[in-house]
Amino acid sequence: MAEVKTRPSKGRAEPETPFRWLGYILVVLSIFPFLSLVSYDSGDVPWIKSPPNDPPNNLIGVAGAVGTAIGYRLLGLGVWMLPFWVLAFSLRLAAGSNTRFWRRFGWCALFQAGLCAWLQLGTNLFAGVMHRLNAAPDPGGLVGWLVMTQGLERLVSPVGGTLIVMTVMIVSLTMAIGPRRLGDGYRDLLGRWRQWRLDRADMTARLAMEEKRLARQLEQERRTADKEARRRAHEEARAARTAEKEARRAEREAREQERAREEEERQRAYEERKEQLRREREREAAAAPAAAAGHAGDGAPAGFRVQGSGGPQDAGSSGTPELPHSRTSELPNFRTSELPHSRTPELPAAAEPPPEPPYELPAVDLLAPLPKGEAVHGDVDQKAGVLVKTLAEFNIPVEVTHIEKGPVVTSFELLPAPGIRVERIATMARNLEMALKATSIRVEAPIPGKGVVGVEMPNEQACPVTVREILEGDYWAKCAREMEIPLLLGKNVSGRDLVIDLASVPHLLVAGATGSGKSVCINAILTGLLMSRTPEQLRLMLVDPKIVEFALYNELPHLVVPVITDPKKVALGLRWAIHEMEKRYKLLSAAGVRNIAAYNRRESVVQPELFDGPGTPPAAAKTPALPARLPYILIVIDELADLMLQAGPEIENGIARLAQLSRAVGIHLIIATQRPSVNVITGTIKANFPGRIAFQVAQRVDSRTILDSMGAEALIGRGDMLFLNPRTSKLVRGQGAFIGDEDARHVVDFIRSQSKPVYIQEVQERLAAGDDEEAEEGAGGTAAGSGAAEGAAGAAADDPGDELYEPALDIVRRTRRASTSSLQRALRIGYTRAARLMDIMEARGIVGPPRGSDPREILIDFDGEIPGNDASGGESPDAPAPAGEGDEAPAP
Q1: In this structure, what are the phi and psi dihedrals at residue 110, rounded to the nearest 5 degrees?
Q2: Are 801 and 872 in contact (CB under 8 A)?
Q3: N or C terminus of the chain: which is more exposed, having fewer CB within 10 Å?
Q4: What is the Cα 433 distance to its own chain's centre?
Q5: The pTM of the whole model exceeds 0.85
Q6: Which pLDDT tens digit goes with each residue over 184-232?
Q7: 526 with 499: CB under 8 angstroms?
Q8: What is the pLDDT of residues 328-382, one digit of tens each?
Q9: What is the DSSP string of 571-587?
């Protein structure tokens, strides 16, 4: 029995050695088919390309190329399984496991045939690959073509063939590996997985218990630490509250003492100045008779004088002390007789009133001291990093090149990477607001003239910008000296003073939502002008439909008329401004200059007397026919919306005509509104106001209405503004300067203490005529009776002329209809003015008296001469009617 058992073992051991060596050899040889497949080139095969590549591109040479080509022809793409089969069987032989070798080989061959048949179904899918391999058209080779195309597809269709092939492949692969071995492997994997789960659960339980223990320990320690921290914080807070109360009390007492001391000093300086002016008036009044005797040849009364003018009238006041920080200008003497349209009667030299004291500009000390405080910008580097990171998340790489720290906002300059459109950055404002936790973000893409994108965000704490801070700066002193009408606006983003010359703008539109800073901006502008310009240099016409905004500035010597608060009188004021503009153009033409600046700089040529008798007084210094100087006129309208609602067409036409023509003669406009809609800021007004300031608005459409671009909706309010400079057509962001009511009142009181207002009589007469019109409208309503016509005729007799008379006459000529209602509709005017025009025609004998509801009778033939329409252009509506045309005349 022992020999029987020993002999077979020796017999089985001997044949295993050749199989092992065969396995070792095949392991090495399995690399050859793999390299042949990887480096296959159809050009290496002689029957595919003639002549073939020399040397061949295949790593195994011609043998590898030919073998691969044959493999593609037989097996198609399934030839890539050959290196795997060779390696698998060689490793099995090398390991000494040669049992059931041929059976396994047969099952693998069956799997290979099924694979080729399955690949044959993808003929269209692999067509491109097979063409590149020059082995088209069968991806399954000859085997796949025979099994699938010629066999299964014809018998059971492609779907049935696919099911059969997949079944054969699964069964053959299972049998090649061995069902028992697969079951053992599955059970081994399942056991390993279950053991891993048990180990993991055990470890998790232990870790959970340890975590609970540590958590309890940490919780106990945390409670102890929190209790101790609360105790210390309570003690520190109590000590801090006590110290803060003491500090606030001390600060409040110091502030009250400082305020009381400043108020006392200001009041003392004010009283001293008033007393000084009173003594100077008394001294000059006592010296008036001697001065009148010494200047008997001067026919013009004395007026305002500016210190430092160098004239003879300043010699007596050279010892007058000057307030600190007060700036004066070297200008000719300001006389009320030289004001346009002033109807002051000429008095003889003996009746000349005592000369007025020299006019002094208000001192900066009248304003409150500068508040202490600096802007808090926070960690700007960290914010810059958040900007870069947020944009990078949206595939917008940028680089922060510069950070500009301003009083209210901080500006980051971003340089986008090449190929990045700036419009993409402009649309990221909301995302940047969320990332930076900012109240508002404004993106300027790009910054004009810099080639970078600006991102502006509010500071954590803003630094206040005050009017006094700018007035004390050197830049304001330079601007007040060089500019004609310097407008004090505030500071830009960089913290530099923002001052513009209105003469170069030349008109300014200010708009924004309620409470955004418009009124403060207007007050800052007016304060800057009052502290830098005398009444001889600048006259003001203020329109305040809200009644309370400009009430502070009443009775200023700069005013042409008192502040206009009635919207119905604004049209009269604009009409006077148009007349004044036309008269100034005539003056410029007579002087041979093109603008007011050249007119004021010209040298007045005085014609001496040719024949002076021995008794003739010296008259070499005759008063020239033209005024020596024309002041600038600034018209400020605080709320345009109310005016447009009540007298829209007339107001719009008056503003448009002034804005188009008044720049050269020194008449400029500033209009403000809190309703920036197209009904208020019409196209006509917008086209003639190139300079615009936009404060915070609620919607993008409002920003477009004001600035023709978006951006104002992203402002933060409280004086934050965008200024459109007409010279560069670029937006400049700035912070408006703040001035309190008390500071403005101190400046106005100082100016009032020096002189009284000198209103232009013509404007007051026109406004008074406007009051008469309102009275007529209230008494007569819209009735067209004879009583209303007589009242209108009386008004027409007092009116020296109406610029709408000629258009009204032309309407009557064309329509052959003379009625007040037709003139109202055609000219878009009120009943009172239309009735006045009709009464002028009646007074000149053109139309008859009113006939109730019927039109008036036309008394003349329009093809002939019109009575009263002489060469004077209708300047005398009071001319009597021709004989035979009626005995009625307009009421005196």
Answers
A1: -65, -40
A2: no
A3: N
A4: 17
A5: no
A6: 777 888 888 888 888 888 888 888 888 888 888 888 888 888 888 888 8
A7: no
A8: 333 333 333 333 333 333 333 333 444 556 788 998 888 888 777 777 878 888 8
A9: HHHHHHHHHHHHHHHHH
